[in-house]
Amino acid sequence: MKLRLLLTSALLMFVQIATMHAQETVDVGKITCAQILREQLPSPTHDIMLWLSGYYNGKRNNLIINLRTINDDEEKVRFYCYSNLDTPVLDAIKNVLGLDK
């Protein structure tokens, strides 16, 4: 019985280690509006948009993020992207939210 428990525990540990190594990276500079709209990213689009919001707020030395406006901003960017599928999402965010002006 103890041997069975030990083997089961070891198997579960190896399964967890294997999934921890399966991380993917994303070059945010290459993400296009089409990829955002079609959900073609390895991570949920909302997570990417949240990261981008933090990135731009950090560039402006703004340490306060208004969580209520993040969803509204994401919808504005998506609406812009419908008409500009080939635009990099970084440029779409800059244009829609008036950043880096």
- Termini gap: 68 Å
Structural class: mainly alpha
CATH architecture: Orthogonal Bundle
Strand content: under 5%
Taken in chain order, the helices and strands follow as HHHHH
Main sheet properties: none
Helix content: 55-70%
Question: Can you tell me the CATH topology?
Answer: 10k-s Protein, Hypothetical Protein A, Chain A
Number of domains: 1
Shape: globular
List segments where confidence is low: pLDDT < 50 over at least 5 consecutive residues: 17-21
What's the β-strand tally? 0
Number of helices: 5
Q: Mean pLDDT, as a whole number? A: 76
Radius of gyration using CA atoms only: 20 Å
CATH class: Mainly Alpha
In words, what does this structure look like?
With 101 residues, the protein is mostly helical. The chain has one domain: 10k-s Protein, Hypothetical Protein A, Chain A (Orthogonal Bundle). Helices cover 64% and strands 0% of the residues. The chain has helices at residues 2-20, 33-37, 45-59, 67-83, 89-97. The longest helix is centred in the first third of the chain and has 19 residues, at 2-20. It is globular, with a radius of gyration of 20 Å.
Give me a quick take on this structure.
With 101 residues, the protein is mainly alpha-helical.
